[in-house]
Amino acid sequence: MPSQFEKRTCRPRDHLEAIGRRYPGAWKAADDFRVDRGQGLPDWADWCYLPLAAAYAIVSGGGPNRVPIRLMADVGALGALMAWRVTQGIYRFDPALYERLIDTPVSGDIPHEILYRLPEWCVYVETPGLQIAANPLHGFFAHLEDDPNNGRVELRLVLDAASGLAPLPLHLGAWSLAESIQRMIDTASVQALGLGMGALPVGQADALRPVVEPIISLLLYLCAEAAEIGAGDRRPANPIPKRTKRGWRLFAADKPTSWDVGVRMGAALRAAYHAAETDGGAAHAGPRGHVRRAHWHTFVSGRRIDDEGTPIPADRRRRDVRWVPPIQVNLPNVDDMPAVIKPVK
User: Fold this and answer.
1) Can you give the pLDDT at residue 328?
2) Is residue 257 a part of any domain in this protein?
3) Does the pLDDT of residue 335 top 70, yes or no?
4) Helix, strand, coil: what percent of the chain each, to 5?
5) pLDDT band for position 82 (50/70/90)?
6) pLDDT of residue 343
7) Residue 143, in any domain of the structure
8) What's the Rg (C-alpha) of the chain?
9) CA nearest 105: which of 1, 201, 178?
10) How far is CA 291 from the centre of its chain?
11) 164 in a domain, yes or no?
12) Where does the chain show beta strands of DSSP type E?
């Protein structure tokens, strides 16, 4: 049993401090790269804090230097931590909502445009109960990569496992989650062969899917328009640059900020479950309260009949696929639930 006087630690903050000691000039270098954006350096999208090339330059020492294989994981970890350092947001889902989200399958095409709406450049999400390779997965960092050299967009995950930080890049586009994982494996295999390491084991994509799919569900909720994050007017956001003698600068957060996610939705779920259990199965009872799974919906638009009066088949009309966020069914009105405000530690 842990001692009551045992010092509580903040894992993402510990990782930030550790990599800062390993690369002591990283934070200043990140600021300098941001200042040179679109001037001495290529431009990149606003939803990307820094392209991963910046982390590569820091880990390698810059110039023509190459990052050795043993330090490749540091590139992904540093890229995430440079972006997370600015806001230091830690996201904790209400347990009832969390359980429903991690069980929600991600089917159809990944709505990569939705992911551009991450509440901060990089988020850290706690993942109680999730595992990777039979070991606890404490949480994960997530940020977006905009590679100005090849235009590739990636969702960059850094898994916070018991064994350490494990970068995991997913290439985004108009394809399924399964294909995103397979593309990652294929790219990694090509790179591994180029480094003389041999191809990655067959079937690794299938092993990654049950790890990645719950993570994507949690991120999709954070990016949804109706996501319940924080309380009242206080919501996460990227900082606004301030004018200094050296030009416009971003100032990093002094300490982490905890964000409660889905508190009122979780309360509504628990209330609905309790009502269903105490109702005794009465005939008048409606369907049990639940959150209808987030899903893809296809909208067919355009002309139904051509100029000659002949019906136009649906497969020849315009088809748009949109992501429909979780919908509450037969739940107490979330707006009527009391807001819960917890002090930030």
Assistant:
1) 57
2) yes
3) no
4) 35, 25, 40
5) very high
6) 41
7) yes
8) 23
9) 178
10) 21
11) yes
12) 89-93, 122-126, 131-132, 135-146, 153-161, 164-171, 242-244, 247-249, 257-261, 290-292, 295-301, 318-324, 327-329
Instruction: Measure the CA–CA gap between 193 and 203, rounded to whole angstroms.
Output: 17
Q: What is the pLDDT of residues 87-104, one digit of tens each?
A: 999 999 999 889 888 887
If one compares 227 and 115, the residue with the highest pLDDT of the two is 115
- Could you read off the pLDDT of 46-73 as tens digits, one per residue? 999 999 999 999 999 998 999 998 999 9
Longest dimension (CA), the chain: 82
Confidence grade of residue 191 (pLDDT, cut at 50, 70, 90): low
- pLDDT at position 135: 86
Pairing state between β 318-324 and 295-301: antiparallel
Q: What is the mean pLDDT of residues 277-286?
A: 54
**Residue 284, Cβ density class (10 Å: 0-12 exposed, 13-18 middle, ≥19 buried):** exposed
pLDDT at site 40 = 84
What phi-psi label fits residue 203: left (phi over 0), alpha (psi between -120 and 50 degrees) or beta?
A: left
Q: Which domain holds residue 26?
A: 11-261
Which residues, 6+ apart, have CB-to-CB distance to 268 below 8 Å?
A: 289, 328, 331, 332, 333, 334, 337
φ, ψ of residue 13 to 5 degrees: the values are: -65, -40
* pLDDT > 70 in the chain, percent: 70
In this structure, what token pair is assigned to residue 157? 């995950």
CB-count exposure of residue 298 (10 Å: 0-12, 13-18, 19+): exposed
How far is residue 61's CA from residue 304's CA, in Å, rounded to a whole number?
Answer: 61
Greater pLDDT, 330 or 270: 270
Residue 233, sorted as left (phi over 0), alpha (psi -120 to 50) or beta, turns out to be: alpha
Name the one residue in this structure whose structure tokens are 């899917």: 209
In residues, how long is the chain?
Answer: 345
For residue 244, give the 3-state DSSP assignment: strand
The count of structural domains within the chain is 1
Inside any domain, residue 178:
yes
Beta-strand ranges (E) seen in 172-301 are 242-244, 247-249, 257-261, 290-292, 295-301
